[in-house]
Amino acid sequence: MRVLDLLRPVRGLRVLVSAGASGIGATVAAAFCEAGARVHVCDIDRTGLARLSAEFPEITTSVADASVARDVDTVFDDVKSTLGGLDVLVNNVGIAGPTGPVEDIGRVDWERTVAVNLNSHFYFATRAVPLLKASSQEPCLIAISSVAGRLGYPLRTPYASTKWAIVGMMKSLAIELGPQGVRVNAILPGTVEGERMNRVIGARAAAAGVSETTMREEYLGKISLRRMVTTEDIAAMALFLCSPAARNITGQAISVDGNMEYL
Question: Do 219 and 238 reside in the same domain of the chain?
Fold first, then answer.
């Protein structure tokens, strides 16, 4: 097989993307669909799912709160009926969480961030792993973490803590599942262009008492390439990790961030 052929994911892969109605998740779902995969997406956002379905009618969907185990069970019931199994899980769930000094962060905000960003990854992994073990298509589990999963992030302690934990979960699962042929990796996006990043910059600017323009320039100054990444950059990495070219890549936390030097 030619090297270029190895870079293309196998057609017909059965793919589940969590939190896939918008942002990174929607771009990843669309990329797999365009690459010939059968894709199922879940999200808490009904409007976003309807918009995705209108653009890609072949993508099936479930409405679910990923932090609720019963909702995740329902998603996998839907996956079994629509896809008949699973070859790839892209675990994309995550919220920004609160911004502020640790002594000002309330317990409710902390617990909600952990529930959405970390517990959900556990719920999806426990249901996906038996299906991935049964796959004959070089099964993959991709966890979407963050550059905050390798760097400290002042004023964003709950978020950073969960993103580091996702990397630890990935490393452990890669060792646990490797003998069964299941590859597990994490993608660590940096500063991603879009509305969500705009909200984060606004919140940090308010917390620091500076303008949003100043905070945006501060973010770009921390990136070696002096530019943000796009959702397409993340989707391209996800496709690569599910291609034959990546068949010996597992247990890796791969940053797609333009080399974020610090946060």
Answer: no
What digits encode the pLDDT tens for the residues 214-253?
999 998 999 999 999 999 999 999 999 999 999 999 999 9
Find the CATH number of the domain harbouring 75: 3.40.50.720
DSSP string for 138-205: --EEEEE--GGGTS--TT-HHHHHHHHHHHHHHHHHHHHHGGGT-EEEEEEE-SB-SHHHHHHHHHHH
CA dist 168 and 252 (Å) reads 10
Q: Which residues contact 245 (CB under 8 A, 6 or more apart)?
A: 3, 6, 7
Helix (H) or strand (E) holding 54: helix 46-55
Residue with tokens 């617990």: 111
Can you spell out the DSSP letters for 89-138? EEE--------S-GGG--HHHHHHHHIIIIIHHHHHHHHHHHHHHT-SS-
Q: Is residue 262 part of a domain?
A: no
Q: CB 139: neighbour CB atoms within 10 A?
A: 26
Query: Tokens 């896939």 map to which residue?
Result: 20
Q: Over 90: is that where the pLDDT of 8 sits?
A: no
- Mean pLDDT across the chain: 95
C-alpha span between 125 and 91 (Å, rounded): 8
249 domain residue, yes or no: yes
